[in-house]
Amino acid sequence: MKCIITYFQNKRIALPYIFNRYCFPKMKEIFPGEMKLYHIFHNLHIKDNLLESNRIEENKLKQTTEFIHKYKGACIIPHKKVFPELYSIPSYKIGVVMALKESADLHLWLEDDAIVYDMNCKTWPEKMIGKDVGLYRQTMHISMINCAFMLTSLNYDYRLLPVLNNYKKDGKCYPKSSQFEHLLWKHVENAILLDKNNAIRHHPYNPSINKEEVKKWLYDKIPEIEKQDIDLLDLDFKT
């Protein structure tokens, strides 16, 4: 059994660093098989973009570059690929290709404003039998997948690769910022809900989760976390 984790990172450092330092070692220790971590760093600034992370000031890229060397036990994959239809597509494609190359039975996706600390990962192989996707946020009722944190199967990643290779915006899909998430759902045959308490995402929209709520979650989940690491969130998020 093999699981790979791909952290899709642009200009935020706090949650990827905290996951790398505190969560990944513990999850790797109890997972019933091999677990690998990849940080896929999109070293690109595009100010006119739907994605909030791309609109953050350009100097944050330097901050991310300086932090990368602190990610212990991870493989760092930087790139500057541009795909105007959706700027995150090249990173997603790299992640899926890496999962297929590794023949990973399971693939945990994480974006740089989200974190998972799931000590039930030892049950993932059993829970994911016959399932395409494990969801940390219940979005089935609106026919979309929140790809900030999701667990996918090898079969689903195989089906998803041609979708990524041929991605085009759907002008009829609403809202525009969630087109990819709706497209992901179209290719799901079976999904399962994972424990939402084991994941959190800074999300100043609806549902709103602010920086202080993320800090509280981190203190509750990781009692040993150092204050200097918690304070990194102040570099990434204003509120």
Q: How would you explain this protein's 3D organization?
A:
This protein is globular. The chain has 239 residues and is an alpha/beta fold. The model has no long low-confidence stretch (mean pLDDT 87). Helix content is 36%, strand content 19%.
In short:
The protein has 239 residues and is α/β, with parallel strands linked by helices. It has helices spanning 14-30, 52-55, 60-68, 89-101, 124-127, 154-165, 179-186, 211-221, 227-230, 233-236, and strands at residues 2-9, 34-42, 74-79, 106-111, 114-116, 133-135, 149-153, 191-193, 199-201.
Features:
239 residues; alpha/beta; Spore Coat Polysaccharide Biosynthesis Protein SpsA, Chain A; seven-stranded mixed beta sheet; 10 helices; 9 strands
- Which strand order does the major sheet show? 3-2-1-4-7-6-8
CATH class term? Alpha Beta
Report the average pLDDT across residues: 87
Bin the helical content: 25-40%
Label the overall shape.
Answer: globular
Which helices and strands occur, and which strands form pairs?
Layout: E1 2-9, H1 14-30, E2 34-42, H2 52-55, H3 60-68, E3 74-79, H4 89-101, E4 106-111, E5 114-116, H5 124-127, E6 133-135, E7 149-153, H6 154-165, H7 179-186, E8 191-193, E9 199-201, H8 211-221, H9 227-230, H10 233-236
Parallel strand pairs: 1-2, 1-4, 2-3, 6-8
Antiparallel strand pairs: 4-7, 5-9, 6-7
